Amino acid sequence: MFQTLKTPTLIDRGAQTPAPGQGFDHLSLDELFKIFTSFLHRQYRVIVVAFLLMMALAAVYLFTTPPSFTAFAKLLIDSRKVQLFQQQSVLGDTPADPGSVDSQVEILLSENVLLPVIKELHLTEDPEFVAPDDGLFSTIKGLVLNPSAIMGLASSIMGLASSEESSEGQPSEFALTRAAIGRLQSHLTISRSGLTSLINIGFRSHNPQRAAQVANAVAEAYINDQLQAKYQATRRGGTWMGDRIKELRDQVTRAEHAVVDFKTKNNIVAVGSNRLMNEQQLSELNSTLNQARAHTAEAKAKLNRIDEILRSGAEIPDATVADSLQNQVINGLRSQYLDYSRKEAEYSAKYGAGHGAVLNLRRKMQETRRVIFDELGRIAQTYQSDYEIAKAREESISKSLADIVSQSQTTNQAQIALHDLESSAQTYRALHDDFLKHNTEAAQQQSFPITDARLITTATPPLAPSNPRTKLILMVASAGGLILGFGLGLLRDITDRAFRTNDQVASILNTDCIAVLPKVKGPMRLPSPQSDRAYAGLEHRIIRRDQSPFWTVVDSPLSRFAESIRAIKVAADHNKSGKGGKVLAFTAALPNEGKSTVAMALAQSIATVGGRVLLLDADLRNPVLSRKLVPEAKVGLLEVLANQVRIEDALCLEPDTRLAFLPVVTKGQMAHSSEVLACEATKILFERLRQSYEYIIVDVSPLAPVVDVRAMTHLVDAFVLVIEWGRTKIDVVEHALRKAPGVYDNLLGAILNKADVDLLRRYEGDRGYYYRNEHYAPL
User: Fold this and answer.
1) Where would you tag: which of 21, 343, 629, 657 has the fewest CB atoms within 10 A of its CB?
2) How far apart are CA 519 and CA 753, in angstroms?
3) In angstroms, rounded to a whole number, what is the distance separating the alpha carbons of residues 749 and 721?
4) Count of CB atoms within 10 A of residue 457's CB?
């Protein structure tokens, strides 16, 4: 459903979104079910066609694809194999990681593995490999399941196209081999089993025995290729290692001789644990020097602290300083000073600051402070003496250390060079031993190489074909057909921007949908003609009957069309104007929507029951009613407005229903038709008509092409908007009404015209049976 707001001057296309409180999240299950069933009613043909199309494609695939069989073999990539010789392989076996297993999958598809299979099984002589007869679907499926086979197939095609033929006119051996490789790769399926080190090798063939042979042959060819690669690598590694070991042996001999010669030349003798004498002395003096420097720093810190206290000028040192000095005399004097200070404060508060006891306490406090600082000075002298002693000891040790360092410089330089020589000799010796060990391993591996892969499941001929998979294909085709059908149906619903239901009119235009007029099919019955002499020379003012839909209400009074026309009259009767006769104008957004037919039908319906009704053609640009009803009319609305004839002389009459009709006679296109309809003479004419008729049915021009309707809004009591069902676009009607606010303000309602009743049932959901009620007679 769609919701917009009605304003005096504008219709707001809010959207095409549910009204507030009516979004999909507020719909009940019953309402959702109704929406779904309504959608199925509308689009079931599209869904069925899409479903049948997909099933037909699946059937074509199943009938055109010959059955094939797939055999599987399993390989295990495992580097943790049983070692006959407990040495490391020259190639360095590593655990099989996911990347290495995926690499083995690609190796299995390489030509290095497949060429031996082709030669062993003589596949170039097998017609299935050099002249495949699979259907197109099977070939495409093989390429999709095995993308790496695309290159092989392409190369085989290029090889067949560019290869030279033999003298007998047959393809060369090279072309046959390339074709067999392409065929083998396109039908070979190599996949890793989950996250394990297992590799599945599958081959699809029309012959189950051939499928098993090829799968097993590929596995064996891969294992042989791995063995051959290890053998070649081990042999090359062993040859290179032998040459390298000879070079290292000579380097080790030269390095060890250089060490011995250097020690003899520089008189270097090791004393216990390969350490020299001067090294031991340097280590001891360095330790002693570090301790002396620590004592000097401690003495300096104490001296600096006591000097800082003496320079601070504080009355007494605080408790932290006293504790750090660890002097009982100062601690006692400080306690005594604090006691005097407390008493001095008490006496001052009690007797006053000038009392004798207070002055005596102050003298005692000064004496105590002097004694404290005298004691601190003595301690400072002691710290100064300790600092001087520690400093002298440190300088003595530093001098001794410098003498030893000076004496051992020559020996140290020689020792540095000796260390370089010894390190070089040890490195060459370690390399020589390591390469000698690996050379032994290489010799053993070369005599018995072991591969990382082993065949754990041998392929056997399959008992049932693997392709085509009939059930899966039919299930996929069914699901795809339904999804495609629902998608196309939803797309059709989304792109359908025409009016089709009452609810659309009510929600989008915010007005009532008065009636839904079915499309009239087939010619109407034609009454027997009357003699022209009965009209006494007024033939040009007589409305003649024909087989057009204009006469449906008279010819089929019990039809759905006639009942809907009567609904318009009921709506008009409830619209009280208070101006005498009701002026009801019929308009549309675009031409050819059936407004003239509806206006004529309503006028006939009212006239049939004896109502005084006048049908007036006010479409000065395209007077369809005048041309259809009285094509021979000589005067009409324009002549009446110009006071050239009386209105009684311009009216035309339908003999059976006594319907009065005021036509429009034009000689050509009118440029200023809106001024004619808006003039004072037109207003006076409508006032006169109101006094003479109960209903004035006016057929006016469409809203979008011209502005005539806007010029006569003051003359009309109510407008009826005719909308062609399933054709007129929603945005066109909205735009037309937005440009004609006077019409929208006086809008009685809208009519959906030319509705296909069968299709309408699909859009109305469970209300569709109303249009098939048994009380309606067929047209």
Assistant:
1) 21
2) 7
3) 6
4) 16
C-alpha 383: how far from chain center: 82
Q: Helix 277-312 crosses helix 356-447 at what angle (to 10 degrees)?
A: 150
Q: Which tokens go with 140?
A: 């495409």
Contact 181, 114 (CB under 8 A): yes
Longest dimension (CA), the chain: 162
Q: Read off the pLDDT band of 616 (50, 70, 90).
A: very high
pTM for this one? 0.52
Whether the predicted pLDDT of 86 surpasses 50: no
Determine the average pLDDT of the residues in 460-472: 85
Domains and CATH numbers, the chain: 5-65+468-495 (no CATH), 69-236 (no CATH), 277-447 (1.10.287), 502-521+548-771 (3.40.50.300)
**How far is it, in rounded angstroms, from Cα 198 to Cα 74?**
7
Distance CA 106, CA 22 (A): 58
Reported as a single tens digit per residue, the pLDDT across 701-743 is 999 888 888 888 889 999 999 999 888 888 899 998 998 898 9
Res 577 pLDDT > 70? no
Are 190 and 108 contacting, i.e. CB atoms less than 8 angstroms apart? yes
Which of the two residues, 320 and 246, has the higher pLDDT score? 246
Percent of the chain with pLDDT over 70: 77
What counts of helices (H) and strands (E) characterise the chain?
Answer: 26, 14
Residues in the chain: 779
C-beta separation of 510 from 7 below 8 A: no
CA-CA distance, 461 to 725, in Å (whole number)?
66
Mean pLDDT, rounded, for 356-372: 81
Q: What CA–CA distance (Å, rounded) separates 17 from 2?
A: 6
Alpha carbons 388 and 177: distance in angstroms, whole number: 101
With a CB cutoff of 8 Å and minimum separation 6, the contacts of 262 are 268, 414, 417, 418, 421
Question: Structure tokens of 351?
Answer: 């007797």
Query: What's the rounded Cα separation, in Å, for the pair 709 and 620?
Result: 11
The torsion angles phi and psi of 617, rounded to 5 degrees, stand at -90, 105
Residue type, 761: R
